[in-house]
Amino acid sequence: MPPPADIVKVAIEWPGAFPKLMEIDQKKPLSAIIKEVCEGWNLPNPETFALQNADSTNFYITEKNRNNIKNGSILRLTTSAAQMAQQLHERIQSSSMDMKLDALKDLANSSRDITFAQEFINLDGISLLTQMVESGTDFGDLLSFTLTAFVELMDHGIVSWDTFSVAFIKKIASYVCKSAMDTAVLQRSLAILESMVLNSQDLYQKVAQEITIGQLIPHLQGTDQDIQTYTVAVINALFLKAPEEKRQEMAHILAQKQLRSIILSNVIRSNKPINDEMAHQLYVLQVLTFNLLEDRMMTKMDPQDQAQRDIIFELRRIAFDVECESNNSGSFEKRKSMYTRDYKKLGFINHVNPAVDFTQIPPGMLALDNMLYFARHHQDAYIRIVLENSSREDKHECPFGRSSIELTKMLCEILKVGELPSENCHDFHPMFFTHDRSFEEFFCICIQLLNKTWKEMRATSEDFNKVMQVVKEQITRALTIKPNSLDQFKSRLQNLSYTEILKLRQSERMNQEDFQSRPILELREKIQPEIMELIKQQRLNRLCEGTCFRKISSRRRQDKFWYCRLSPNHKVLHYGDLEESPQGEVPHDSLQDKLPVADIKAVVTGKDCPHMKEKGALKQNKELLELAFSVLYESDEYLNFIAPDKHEYCVWTDGLNALLGKEMTSEFTRSDMDTLLNMEMKLRLLDLENIQIPEVPPPIPKEPSNYDFVYDCN
C-alpha cells in the first residue's frame, strides 16, 4: 500500500551524528517536526534550530516552501536563520582578519537564501556592509566577499536602491576606475553600478557624475568576458537612463573613445565564443545606438527652411554636375522648369517642391540624410543610378527619391528603430559593429539592391509596392545568416536575386495549395469545429504539463522562477516558487498554492495587466508587454504572468480562455488551425482508388534479440 501523500521520507543530518531517517508529516507544523528531531538528539532549545536543504543551495525550509521536499531528500538540522544572521552580524565585525574573512564567506553564501536575507536585513545588515565599504579598510578577498554579500542581499528586492549615500557610490565607482583591481571586486562593483542606474533616476545622476566612458573602456580591452559583459551592461544602463538631450552627446563620446572598434576587436572577433549574456548586451547596445536615429526619423522637413532645401540642391548638383545658378541667370520660369525636370529625374513625387516628399513621418529627415550620405560617400554609384534611370523609358525608370524614402522607412521597421530593447533577445548583428556609420552604409547597400531588383523585375511605377516587398524579403533573408561584415551581407544579397526569391517562394508554396472551389470551402467549414476542439484539448494538456515562468527582477543574471500547472481534472491551477529552472515537469504536490478555476473572473493581457502598469524602463518595452497576462480572481486579486516566449503566451492565454468558455484568438491558434485544416483536407482529398486502408494499425515489430547496436555516449 503506498504511503499517504502528506508523508515524506527524508534523511536528516547533524554534525557528529549518524543521519536520521524519518517520515515527515506535511500536515504537522514545522516547529513540531524540528522539536521532534531535536529531542531525538537530545538538543535543548529547539526554537533556535531550523532545517536546511543539504545541497549546494543550503536554503532554509519554511512553511512556505516545505512542499518542495521530495521523498529521499537529505535535510540538515542547523542554526535558525535569525540566530545565524545574529551570529554573522557579530562575526563580520571581528577584529581578527581571519575570522572576519570566514564570516564574510559564510555571509556571501547564506545571502542567496531569502529567509536568511530577510533576517540579516532586519538587523540593519545592509547599512553595516555599506559602512564597511565606505571605511575603505578592506581589500582583496575581504572586499570581494563583502560586495558579493551586498549584491546577493539587494537582489531579493527587499531594500530600495534609493537609500544609499554618495560616499558609498563614490567608493564603488573608485573600484571601477582603478586600473589594477581584483577581478571579483571589479565584477561586483560593475554589477552594483548597473543596478543603481537601472533602479533609480536619482542614482543615475550620481553614478554618471562619478564614472566616465573613458574609465570603463579599458575593461573591454582585457580578456575576461564576464568583466567585458558587465562593462557593456553599465554603458547600456547609462545610455538607457540618460535624458533624451544627453544621448546624442553620449553617442559622440562613445565614438570618440572608439567603443565600437574596441568591442569589435576584443569581443566579437576574439577567440572566445560569445555567451548569451554578452550577446544580449551587444543587442541592447545595437538597439540603443539605432534609436538615436528616431529623432531624425520623426522630424518633418520644413519646405520653407533654406538650409534643408540646400541639401536637395546638393543632391541635384552631385547627380547632374551643375552649379547652383545665380538668381540672375535666365528667367525665373526657365530655372523653375529646369529644376522640375531634374527633380523628376531624381525620382521625387513632388517635382516642383521635393521638400514636401520629406514631410511624411516616419522616415522624415532620416531619408534625406541617407540620400545625402549615399551621394557624397558612394558618388559613382549614386550618379550611375540616377543617370541610368533618367535615360530609361518613363514607365521603367526606378524613382530614386521615392525609393529612398520608402526604403529608409522599411529599414527602420526591420531594425525596430524607436523601440526599447527586449528583455530576452540576443539578436545582435556583428556587421553593424564594423562601421561608424553602419545604418547609412546599410542603406547604401540596400538602395543599390533595390535598383538591381527593379531592373530584374522589369518593373514599372505600378509595381513599386511589389518591388519593395521583394527587397524586404531579400534583406530579411540575408540578415538571418548574421553576416560578419557589410561585404558578407552584400555578397549574400548578390545570391538572392529576384529569380532566386521566386524559386524560394515556389518551393515554400509547394505544400500550401489554395483550395477555393465551393465544395472545398464547405468541407473546410464542416471540419473546422473538430479541429478547433483538437487545438483546445492540446492547449489544456499543455496547461496540465505546466510551465516554468521567470520572475522579472532588476538584474537579469540571477533568475528566480515559479511554476504553474493545471490539475488533470481541469479544476485547479497549482503554482509555487522554485529555486532553479526545473528539468521536466514539477509535481502538483510540490506546488503549495492553489487557485480554483471556478474563481477565475477574467484573463487580461498586455497593458491591462497590473504588473505592466508599473513604471520603469524594463517594463515599458513592447516585447515584454506582448508576453504579459494576468488572471483576475475574487474581487481585485491577480495572478501575474510573464511568458518565457510568444508560444507559451499563446498556449496559456488560449488554455485559460478555453477554461472560461471563451474563444481562443491567439495567432498560434490561427496558425495551428491552418496547418491542421490543410493536412486534414489533403488527407480527405487523396486519390485512394484501389488502395486498401487497413482496419487496424500495423503490428509493432518484436524487440531485437540483443541491443549490441546501441552505443552509450556516456
TrEMBL record:
UniProt-listed GO biological process terms: actin filament organization; apoptotic process; cell motility; phagocytosis
Subcellular location: Cytoplasm; Membrane
Any GO MF annotation of the entry: SH3 domain binding
Major location category of this protein: cytoplasm
Pfam families documented for this protein: ELMO_ARM, ELMO_CED12, PH_12
Domain ELMO: 307-479
Listed GO CC annotations: cytoplasm; guanyl-nucleotide exchange factor complex; plasma membrane
PROSITE patterns the UniProt entry points to: ELMO (PS51335)
Keywords noted in UniProt: Apoptosis, Cytoplasm, Membrane, Phagocytosis, Phosphoprotein, SH3-binding
InterPro entries reported in the protein's UniProt record: ARM-like, ARM-type_fold, ELMO_ARM, ELMO_dom, ELMO_domain-containing, PH-like_dom_sf, PH_domain
Role summary: Involved in cytoskeletal rearrangements required for phagocytosis of apoptotic cells and cell motility. Acts in association with DOCK1 and CRK. Was initially proposed to be required in complex with DOCK1 to activate Rac Rho small GTPases. May enhance the guanine nucleotide exchange factor (GEF) activity of DOCK1.
Alphabetical list of PANTHER family matching this protein: ENGULFMENT AND CELL MOTILITY, ENGULFMENT AND CELL MOTILITY PROTEIN 1
Protein name: Engulfment and cell motility protein 1
Gene that encodes it: elmo1
